[in-house]
Structure formats: C-alpha cells, structure tokens
Amino acid sequence: MEVFRKVAEIKEFVRQKKAQGKVIGLVPTMGYFHLGHLALMREAKNSGDTVVVSIYVNPLQFGPQEDLASYPRDEQRDLALAGEIGVDAVFIPADAEMYPNGFSTYVEVEQLTSGLCGQFRPGHFKGVTTVVLKLFNIVTPDRAYFGQKDYQQLVVVRKMAEDLNLDVEIVGLPTVREPDGLALSSRNVYLNPEERKAAPLLQQSLLKAKEEIVNGERSPEKIRDLIARILQSEPLIRTEYIEVREARHLEPLEYLEGRIVIALAARVGKARLIDNILVEV
Ligand code: AMP
Questions:
Q1: How many domains, the chain?
Q2: pTM for this one?
C-alpha cells in the first residue's frame, strides 16, 4: 500500500493506474477508522477497483465552536487497517496542501443544505462539497463510496455530481452499527459509559417509528412526536432535530408515501450524534 501526502504524487499514481486500464474507487474519510469506514473500503475492493482512501480532517466543514481540535486521530492504526483490507493507496494531505494561502474557491449545493444538519451546522456542507470536489479532481475516481449514516451528505454529494456533470458514480452503503444498534461513528469515543448506554435509544426510536409507519401511520407530525417523546424519556439525550422527508431529494412531506427517510441529530454529552432510517410505503 502506498501512502501519499502530496497532490502531485497521488495524481501520478492514478495516472499510471488508469494507463493500465484500472477502475479507480475513492473512499473519502476523516480517519479514525471503524467498521463503517472499512465496509466502504471492502466494497470498493470487492468491486475490483484500485482503491484510494483519503484521510483528511477537513477544517472547512467544522464550525468555530465544533470539535476540529479534539477530533480523534490515529494515523498508524488507520494505515494498518487499510493495509489489511488491501487498499492500494492512502492520500493524507496536510492543510497547506489542500488549502494553500489565498485559497478562495468554494462549492455550495443550495436548498438541500438548508435543513436538517445544515440548519445546525452553518457552512458545514459547503466545506464538505468543496473538499469532496477537490478530492474528486485530484483522484478522478470512477466511483466514490459514501455511508448512509451521513444521509444528507450522501444526497448533497449526489446532487453536486449531477449538477456539475461529474464523471463519478456515487455509491451509498448501509450504516454499520454496534451490536446494540448505535451507529458507528468516530465521535462515539466522546461518550462516557453512561452516555454510551443511553445512545442506542436514537436507533430504537427510529425503529419504533418505522414500525408505526408499517402499521399504517401516515402523518409525519405523529411520527416526529413519537420519536421526540421517546428521546425525551432519556435525560442524557438532547434532541437537535427530527425530520421525516422524501428520501431522494429530502423534500418535506405532508403525507407518508413512497421512499421516506427519518433523520435525527442529538447531543449526547460532548458528542453530536446523527442517525436515520429508510422506510418504503
Ligand atoms: P467520516 O470519516 O466520519 O467523515 O466518514 C467517512 C465515510 O464513512 C462517510 O462516507 C461516512 O458516511 C461513512 N461512515 C461513517 N460512519 C459510518 C457507519 N457507521 N456506517 C457506514 N458508513 C459510515
């Protein structure tokens, strides 16, 4: 496995692979790998791609009050795990490599980024799309792999790729969870033991909501209220939002039908956790 820190180096690696007719698969990450990251890498590998993983904690997508400084990092462990999976190259740029002095160009997907997480993290998705487009331009992947855990991010990246005619297939993969249902996240390390015990209630509330819909409930309001009530029963959980939306374009719904996503965000101790569930009616 090759490790590159310079844009010019990874570009040259990709150029050579493409000359050999290889298909390039990119897995963008912020590192501190868990089984969710590894599932994306495995899928890329199983698809026969030459797999490039980027590890970059992108300052542009963190707000001033957010956890950029404390975001967990473990480069050596990440490299060992990527190596075990058979990743072909890891790209680990420094900030100065991604955003040299005077950097001043940004990419923003409108509308889709105004609600859900966008409402609570101003500028976050602008940071995400800017770095993802840069990574796409640097690595020129044929396919790029994203997790459904960050559902809005997946929809926003798909929209950017469509709107800007990017030649990349966006592959979305299911959320990988702990045995008790908590969605894996690098941020779960912020949870103390009590908070960790409370956190699976996020998914439990979504499963309960799904059950209600399957049993015939069609009111988004009632579904939101149900989840809110469940989460209020746990004092360690402070709900940020609960949204019931049409799954492809995140349009609000007055009546539940078609492909639906229920997405939520909550503060649990120092961690801001998100989760979602897809329901088809
Ligand atoms: P991150 O390092 O948190 O920015 O995540 C990098 C990629 O891994 C993103 O596409 C995430 O959606 C994906 N990811 C993070 N957590 C999970 C999970 N629990 N299951 C599946 N994919 C995930």
A1: 2
A2: 0.98
